[in-house]
Amino acid sequence: MPINGLRLPPVGDTNGWYIYAGEELSSNPDFFVPLHTLHLDEWCPSIRKYLGLGPG
Predict the structure, then answer these.
(1) By C-alpha distance, which of 5, 21, 12 is closest to 55?
(2) Are 3 and 44 in contact (CB under 8 A)?
(3) How many structural domains comprise the chain?
(4) Coil, strand or helix: which one is 12?
(5) What is the pLDDT of residues 5-50, one digit of tens each?
(6) Nearest-angstrom CA–CA distance, 39 and 7
(7) What is d(CA 43, CA 35) in angstroms, rounded to the nearest whole number?
(8) Could you give the CA distance from residue 32 to residue 20 in angstroms, rounded to a whole number?
């Protein structure tokens, strides 16, 4: 905790969302892992309501 989200313009087959837990971003190249939105209910269902927000 906390849960953080960053929405960038979509590129390729991504939707532009980068969601992470914790106080700060890591520089580790595998810090972000792909997660299909269908699995959000298992991981953190409370963030689903924010997925409609635009980039920025």
Answers:
(1) 5
(2) yes
(3) 1
(4) coil
(5) 888 898 898 888 888 888 888 889 988 888 888 888 898 999 989 8
(6) 18
(7) 9
(8) 7
* Residue 14 covered by a domain: yes
Residue 40 belongs to what domain range?
3-50
15/22 Cα distance (integer angstroms): 22
pTM: 0.70
Q: Is residue 22 a part of any domain in this protein?
A: yes
Helix (H) or strand (E) holding 45: none
Query: Has residue 55 been placed in a domain?
Result: no
In a domain, 56, yes or no: no
Amino acid code (one letter) for 18 = Y
